[in-house]
Amino acid sequence: MIFARAQLKGLDISTSDTAPESASTPPEPSSAPSPTNPFGVPIPAEPATAAPVEPPAAPYVPPTAPPTPAAPPFEPAIATAPATHVAPPFESAATAAAPVAPSFEPAAPAPAPVAPTSAPASAGWAAPTAPANPIAPGAAAPAAPTTPIAPGFPPPGADPALAPPEKKKRKWGWIIAVILLALGLITVGIILILSLIRLGEAQELIGDQKEQIQEQEDVIEEKESFSSAMNELMATAHLFDGLPYGDIVPLDRYQNLATGAWEHRWDPATVALDTVEVQAETADLNAVLTAAQEQAATNASGTNYETVIDQLGSGYVTSAFDDPDTLCESDVLGCVMWDDPYTIHFDQADGYHESMNDWIRTGVAYHEYAHVLQGTNLDESDLAAEAFGGDWETMADCYVFTYLPGWTLDHTVFVGDGSYWEVSVGYGYTCNESQRQSIRDWVASIGVQVDTITQ
Questions:
Q1: pTM value > 0.90
Q2: Lowest mean pLDDT among 88-92, 217-221, 420-424
Q3: How far is Cα 279 from Cα 286, in angstroms, rounded to an integer?
Q4: How far is the CA of 190 from the CAs of 48, 181, 185, 205, in angstroms?
Q5: Which of 277, 455, 453, 304 is nearest to 366 (CA)?
Q6: Dihedral in degrees, nearest 10, Cα atoms 177, 179, 181, 187
Q7: Which pLDDT belongs to residue 108?
Q8: Chain centroid to CA 443: how far?
Q9: Lesser CB count within 10 Å: N end or C end of the chain?
Q10: Where are the alpha helices (DSSP H) in 246-347?
Q11: Distance between the two ends of the chain, CA-based, in angstroms?
Q12: Considering the chain, what is the average pLDDT of its residues?
């Protein structure tokens, strides 16, 4: 079917059955029959004076709005995908071939449609109106509007099975991030492990150093303890300085203790034992001092022997009244054993016979005390005995001659009724002055001489 469109300038065509009102005289009817459209509707003839003017071509404006506008009345729906278009009844073939985009608007307003002059042949039919957006002659038909389609979704009406498969994006970013995170965690773990190892080594080293420091402190402490004990021992030994008993203070032993402590200086346990020994030696000296003071202050036996010996020995020599004949295996008035030179054994029965008196007992006490000096100064005594031919008994008799003025070997002891005893004591030899000087030199060389102890 074909629709005819006409546009008159300055003319207003009415769609009513009556002729338009005009100030001029109505035209005369033409004798030629009026053309009709296929429906029998007469087509008004164009005035001779009015030539059809084509509207100016509207400039092409591409669609910009994505939403699809509503279709105008009597206008078919616009297809969203290329498909064969079937023209509806009353739609021209030209319109069906090129659908007009709803959003396209011409630059100039569209002319009003021409109404037929006579009523349609069939009742109820209404003449179609011109499209809202006419296409200018010579202009290309605009492309059919399309509904925006979201990426990855098929167009409306398309078969989902025929839709192209969705392209999967590679998750390289996540993979790289995970790898970097894993590497970071591994690095942190390695650093943490190394730190823990180094921390353990450092703690072990600190522990070893603490042990070494503790050991050094123990060594220093024990050395200080030993030094203190040694100083106390030497201070006590100086109390014996000048006594004629050389071995009463065992200086050689003290020197050995000091030397041993120096050798044990890195062994605190052994140094501690050395300290104990030094303290024991100090205790022994103090015991000797206490005993000597008590011995010198008392005379338990009440005898002349003990009185003389306490004066000579200052309490360091003890008088014992027992059986010297058995100890020395001879008939003697007194005896000194070399294994215990600080004790003099007196024969009380023989010593207090009526043939004895205090003077003779005094000489006997001096003789036995000389043996005490010999036994406590062995080296010096051996050297001095050379002046007596090595005879220690003759040397002891000479000691009595040297330090007990008026002493003789032969004595007369008177008893009652004019009776008396001739008593000879000693070994029958009276030493000369040279020998007596030897005795003096010997006595001067013996005794306690406390020297400095070195390590």
A1: no
A2: 88-92
A3: 11
A4: 103, 14, 8, 22
A5: 304
A6: -150
A7: 47
A8: 72
A9: N
A10: 251-263, 268-297, 304-313, 324-328
A11: 143
A12: 76
